[in-house]
Amino acid sequence: MALRKVAVLGHPVLRKVAEKVPESEIPSEKIQTLIRDMFETMFEYQGRGLAAPQVHESLQIVVMIWDFDPKKEPTSCVLINPAIKPLSEEKSSYWEGCLSFPGLRGKVSRPTRVLVHAFNEKGEALKFIAEGFAATVIQHECDHLMGKLYIDRMADFNELAFNLEYERYHAPSEDSTHEKIDV
Ligand code: ZN
Q1: Distance from the CA of 105 to the center of ligand 1, in angstroms?
Q2: What confidence score (pLDDT) does residue 175 get?
Q3: Most exposed among 17, 50, 68, 84, judged by the fewest C-beta atoms under 10 Å?
């Protein structure tokens, strides 16, 4: 396993539409190594999700923490060639941070429930519904695969802040763990 360098804002790879991974290539050493390296890189930078373009690989692969609870061991998942469909008009707002522009976070509203189709790292087809935290992480990561960033989804740039100012002026006074997401 190896840590990969993270592409930051301004690098063209973050604005490209990533290529689908042919199903026959999912078991290949190249893809399996990339997935392991993405997990290592995500954990190193304390992210909850990472998309392959963020490590300079323009491929439709996402790794993420499925259910984040600081008291429990994280459960992770891999999504290859994911397709998502919103299932609710209702939206959830989180202060999203992104490993590709460290130090900042912005408030983004996204559909609370989404239907996800993807392949996992074994090439098995997945179909499931994600809600709340997981739905936001998946939507943020799938945006990366389409060359989109969370700032493109923001409604109000008054809600874009450096982390210190976020903590000072915007963070809820208690139990803020579910208000912010680093992906
Ligand atoms: Zn991101």
Answers
A1: 10
A2: 53
A3: 17
